[in-house]
Batch of 2 targets.
Target 1
Amino acid sequence: MVNQIPVPQAKYELLTNIRQPRWRTQVVCLTLSFLVVGVLFITRACLGILLLKAPRTDEFLEESHIDNAKIATWLRRARMYAESTKANQNADRNTSVGASEQYLRDTAGQVLVCYYTIPGDLNSSWELSPSYIDPHICTHIIVGFAGVVNSTLDIGDNSLIYKRVVALKNLEPNLKVMISAGGNSELHDGFSEMVKNHANRKKFIQSVLNVTKTFHLDGFDVDWEFPAWLGADNREKIHFVQLLQELRKEFDRSEEKLILSVAVAAPQAIVDQSYSIPEMAEHVDFINLMSYDYHFYVWYFPVTDLNAPLFPRCVETGYLSTLNVNFSAQYWVAKGMPREKIVIGIPAYGHTYKLDNPANHNLQAPASGFGELGVNGFVSYPTVCQFLKSGAINVFNKDSRVPYAFKDREWISYDNEESIFYKSKWIRTNGFKGAMILSLNVDDWKGTCYNANKTFPLTRTISKVLFEQTDK
């Protein structure tokens, strides 16, 4: 039968038989590749969701002094900050940010804003109760986080907590106590749904007024992380300004003279995408700049680095040179926010990494995951103190003005009294509104780092520098 086929036709059929399976194989391989990538992406997304919703355990609570209600929010923000690094090509690179200037001014108008996150279990010895808060350190205490549910401010079952914090004003009449909305409610699109139309915003603002009046609160803090970011509706940027404008209008009408503040992002890419800064500046009393989480362990950039550097290191160039407190604050000024309305955030927590090689423990050392201390890369200041007492080596980076510590495979970036002294001096010298600390809960409120007579050492350091009468 083969001999009956003409030679040219035989060659054609042989070539057809060879090419056809090869083409099909390529299609099959390409399809399988897409399927594998898709499965990996979905798996990673599911793991991230499960991690955020992981149940709280007493073991984690006792080790880190940070409950998972905080961790879910903080972890989400840290991951979005990390995503902003990947998206930095969208940042506006035409805006120049100059070096720090001298803006010495009277400290009478400066503030120390202290976030107090509602504990998951007040019966635990690891949780900060309102009765242990020193009311004389902070000028403002912001209690968080209320939810945004069905376009209303939802405080859940936490009425007693708000009452107990407000009661601190009996000991310090000048103290301002505010409520913050955000945190875990953002996981359920509370803000996105609420700001969509005027009716929803009006309903929300009325609920805010009801809560502030009921609990004798002094103001409201908006902690939406973040409008129009990571695929969200771009119109949220406009709706957010509308919300602030309408809040301001109703606050001015009220008899309580309520304070309006906003917790805002620090990375350049998020700032450009999420905020209309000149318009925001017209309506807010101040912003709380979340100038931390600049570096955090992520699988696509698995190296150690600093949580909240004040300045860039001399070896950092390009976008890496923007990941520091000084750049973020000056960038907000350059984009239209008056420096006298900017409150600089300082973290009382650190970030942990697990070193690949204990012998390689410098900055930018390869890491394979979160450290063993803390929860999901977050560690409280008392835990850092215990780490140092256990023999960890402390290194203070002179360029960035912040320390890090290491022992065996554990590596931690954190702030201590020395770094906070530098930051507070810088805040005062540059004429910013003041400092914000996140949070009182993870400062050493029990006095375990030194002694029981020195509680809240990080927060006290800020207060001492900001409110001293003369520079020394």
Target 2
Amino acid sequence: MTEQGPSGVNTRIPNVARMYDYYLGGKDNFTADREAAEKVLAIVPEVRFSTRENRAFLGRSVRFMVNAGIRQFLDIGTGLPTLQNVHQVAQAIEPESRVAYVDNDPVVGVHGRAILARTENVTMVEGDLRRPQEILDQPAVRQLIDFDRPVGVMLLAIMHFISDKEDPMSIIQTLREAMAPGSYFVLSHVAIDARPAAAPGVEQVYSKASSPFISRTGAEISRFFEGFELEEPGVVNLPEWRPDPGSHVLYRGIGSYFLCGVGRRL
């Protein structure tokens, strides 16, 4: 029996946003997503741990930006709504904070708009990071985000789905040029340094999903911050970026598996 999804959504093809939802323990996924995710977990069991650390990094980076004076955020590749989204973290500190969420998955759009319908200063639009200028030009984004003022632009766990053929450096340059001085750029990206032998198997699973997985080293990921001044402690493993006081991290031998950083636009 074929599972039914929203109109126009093929539930038989694994979807990277729904796979991520499965890693986080969410319920917005289908059989094909779960089967593909389990294949990845068989190769790299720490993925489930790392996706949760990625959400924790989101919270810490947003709090850092709000405390630095940022009051507007552009979260591209937001994925399915879960606990502690950008607007929840930011508005808990500054209620007037504005957030534009962007994703190219119609399922994410449906869920996002339903959840955010009664939330002020927040919008959810469909857009593809591969065409960043179209995102920047969207009326709903422009209505909420004033690019003449500092903004926090967030690309969490999305750039490893952008191939070199799609010119990722140009994508980030387009976003950077639209950002006013004093803006922040937040990135997280899977690195293969610690587990290079696992990369081909993961790539094979994602080759049958909605987006391929692109293997990159830590050095390649660090290049994405060119044109930004890195905030301390630089490009590091997710749990190492400004951990909350008193927190204890269990690394489980991950090594340089999931890197992150925050850069400031000068």
